[in-house]
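Troubleshooting entry. The earlier prediction with T3D gave an output that would not parse, so I re-checked the input for stray whitespace and re-submitted. Clean input:
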Amino acid sequence: MNAQDSAAGGSYTQIRFTLDQDVGVITLNRPDRLNSFTEVMHAELARALDALEAHAGLRGLIITGAGRGFCAGQDLAERKPAEDGSRRDLSLMLEKCYRPLIHRLRALPVPVVCVMNGVAAGAGASLVLACDVVFAAASARFVQAFSKIGLLPDAGGTWFLPRLVGSARAMGMALFGEALSAAEAQAAGLIWRVVPDDALAATLDDITATLAAGPTRAYAATKAALQASSGNTLAQQFDLECQLQRELGYTDDYLEGMRAFAEKRAPAFKGT
Ligand code: T3D
């Protein structure tokens, strides 16, 4: 294992993981299976998250996919019906793999940005929705594929969907499993921005640079406050804003932001 491997938590076979300018980039990497989740991929994602959580000065995480798909959800080859007709407890994999993955991404104190290069289906769509911000290629599609195989949206899908698009649209998407184009997903409020396919790589580089030069502590506070808001009253949210803004008022980045404003120049944030 070389030094770079060690910082990234070892070597990987079903994802690629790099740390550049203190920004992690995870690329789901089973392109011939549209980057569907396997137990091995989950274990590698967990290892990458260990490395990210341990990385002092982390400034962001980007998740994308290799090839023409982003992630087609659970690898259905791992769910081939047994010859003897025996059935399996699907909650086991949800508990063991999907629950920690989604919760760890939500808890990471930096922006988690999805650069959605292609189709996202099933738990792959839930992964997209668990990210803080989503940039999607114009050709990408969302498919709530679960009902097509007799399941309900999982990996947090039933929590994220109604919060993002409202219950009427969430129900339609979940029941009928029709593909949504990137433009439709943006119009519905599922994602932040659609970018031309041939601009996606440049977008990823731009996001890396933005996160690496961003006010990381303000980003963390913003993420925490927005996540808390759906469970809070206005008064509770106001309390949280006071607490977080008090902390941010003492940061180097706030001082730098004020100086830069007075000096009419761009701020040089350090993330501290
Ligand atoms: O533990 C548990 O099981 C509970 C947790 C469940 C979580 C879930 O995610 S359940 C939902 C699982 N996912 C799906 O049902 C989606 C299945 N895939 C599709 O519906 C379609 O492939 C897509 C809409 C995503 C894309 O369609 P399209 O036409 O662009 O591509 P394709 O031709 O269907 O797929 C390309 C290849 O990828 C193909 O293989 P081939 O024919 O070239 O050898 C296809 O079989 C393979 N593939 C696609 N999705 C999966 C997959 N292989 C394994 N698992 C998949 N999920």
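This one parsed fine. The chain is about 45% helix and 15% strand.
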